[in-house]
Amino acid sequence: MSKGKKYYLNIEGTEYPWDDATITPEEIAQLGGWDPAIGVIEIDKDNNERTLQPGEVVELKPGHGFAKKIRWKRG
Questions:
Q1: Domain 7-74 part of CATH 3.10.560
Q2: CA distance 39 to 7
Q3: Cα separation of 38 and 18, whole Å?
Q4: In angstroms, rounded to a whole number, what is the distance separating the alpha carbons of residues 18 and 24?
């Protein structure tokens, strides 16, 4: 876990704090409260959607701005 930096994830409209600089789709699904087998879709600031692959590592940027630009939903 990173020290001093706080990350915020927007998962289906709810913001979750996260302490590490990376996250996997399985961790995103767990935070969001759904079965990882459903999948996770990343939505960027331009509303482009991309399905994350199981075990993929997503690098995060600190701060609230990231949560508003990148978000995830169940796939």
A1: no
A2: 22
A3: 22
A4: 12
What residue type is assigned to position 72 of the chain? W
pLDDT tier at 70, thresholds 50, 70, 90: confident
More confident residue, 75 or 55: 55
**For the whole prediction, is pTM greater than 0.85?**
no
What separation in angstroms does the CA of 4 have from each of 9, 19, 20, 42, 59?
A: 17, 8, 10, 26, 17
Quick one: three-class SS letters along 5-72?
CCEEEEECCEEEEECCCEECHHHHHHHHCCCHHHCEEEECCCCCEEECCCCCCEECCCEHHHHHHCEE
Give Cβ neighbours of residue 65 (< 8 Å, ≥ 6 apart).
none
67 — pLDDT class (breaks 50, 70, 90): low
Domain range list for the chain: 7-74
